[in-house]
Amino acid sequence: MRIALIETALYWENIRHNLDHFHFLFDDVSPDCKMIFLPEMFSTGFTMHPEKVEEQELKKVPGWLKNMSVKYGMALGGSSVTSAGNGFFNRFYFATPDGGIDFYDKRHLFRMGEEQYHYLPGNERKIFNYADWRILPQVCYDLRFPVWSRNRNDYDLLVYVANWPAVRQDAWAALLKARAIENQCYVAGVNRSGEDPRVSYSGGSVVFSPKGEIVSYPSKENESVIYADIDLAKLRKFREKFPAWMDADDFEINKEQP
């Protein structure tokens, strides 16, 4: 299966411009691609002012994802600011060409950016199922907490969408590779580029194989599009040949944040 990561700068707190921009980029994605992943908060940038974003604009995002997924015949995933209940969530949406949509709410809120003062944490580990692939969605800072993403032999592809600052680029690459090796899965990490009012980003979007090898490559048509060909049969064969997962420790996760 071919997947694509879209790495691009974002328009600050401007949902309409961001959605138009991604729609334009989708036209450059190869039609044989089956899934596309967008960066964290792809519709606004990493804003700590969710209350300033018009609620009607926020409500358009999941519907837009569903429409784009149906139009292009590809599953689409990425996180967006979401207003729900008594607060806001950093929500990873996953839309499928049959018109369905699921979501995961970011559990680990970025303390150094004071995200915990503006968003509510999720407490449910989700698995998305699409085209025989089991997909574990994660968002940015989740990458630093391997217990939350530990493979219980229940997923094949681990996806991190991020606004990961350039100053910590080495950590981004090292942790993504480690997650692939320790969980014996494919790992896709899609990061933004450009700048927001406080932070610079240098991309580094990549896909690692279960052996920790880079299997992604940039599109010849548009450098913002990064492809990877992932193979479920090869993954299963590798796990059978090297079944380290059978010796993993059993554990339970406290779903409530301390």
Strands, count? 14
Model regions low in confidence, pLDDT < 50 over at least 5 residues: none
- Give the CATH H-level superfamily: Carbon-nitrogen hydrolase
Q: β content, as a range?
A: 25-35%
Q: Structural class, from helix and strand content?
A: alpha/beta
> Quick one: biggest sheet?
7 strands, mixed
Strand order of the largest sheet: 5-4-3-2-1-14-13
- What's the average pLDDT? 96
Level-2 CATH architecture: 4-Layer Sandwich
User: What are the secondary-structure elements, in order, as H or E?
Assistant: EHEHEEEEEEHEEEEEEH
- Supply the number of structural domains: 1
Compact description:
With 258 residues, the protein is an alpha/beta fold. It is 21% helix and 28% strand.
Task: Furnish the topology, listing elements before pairings.
Blueprint: E1 2-6, H1 15-26, E2 33-37, H2 55-72, E3 75-84, E4 87-95, E5 101-105, E6 128-130, E7 133-139, E8 157-162, H3 169-183, E9 186-191, E10 193-195, E11 200-202, E12 206-208, E13 216-218, E14 225-229, H4 232-241
Parallel strand pairs: 1-2, 2-3, 7-8, 8-9
Antiparallel strand pairs: 1-14, 3-4, 4-5, 6-7, 9-12, 10-11, 13-14
Word description of this protein:
By secondary structure, this protein is α/β, with parallel strands linked by helices. It has a single domain (2-247), classed as Nitrilase/N-carbamoyl-D-aminoacid amidohydrolase, CATH 3.60.110.10. The protein has helices at 15-26, 55-72, 169-183, 232-241; strands at 2-6, 33-37, 75-84, 87-95, 101-105, 128-130, 133-139, 157-162, 186-191, 193-195, 200-202, 206-208, 216-218, 225-229. It has a 7-stranded mixed beta sheet with strand order 5-4-3-2-1-14-13. Strands 6-7-8-9-12 form a 5-stranded mixed beta sheet, with helices on one face. A two-stranded antiparallel sheet has the order 10-11. Strand 1 (2-6), helix 1 and strand 2 form a beta-alpha-beta unit. Helix 1 (15-26) packs parallel to helix 2. The radius of gyration is 17 Å and the shape is globular. The chain starts with a strand and ends in a 17-residue tail after the last helix. 42% of the residues are buried. The model has no long low-confidence stretch (mean pLDDT 96).
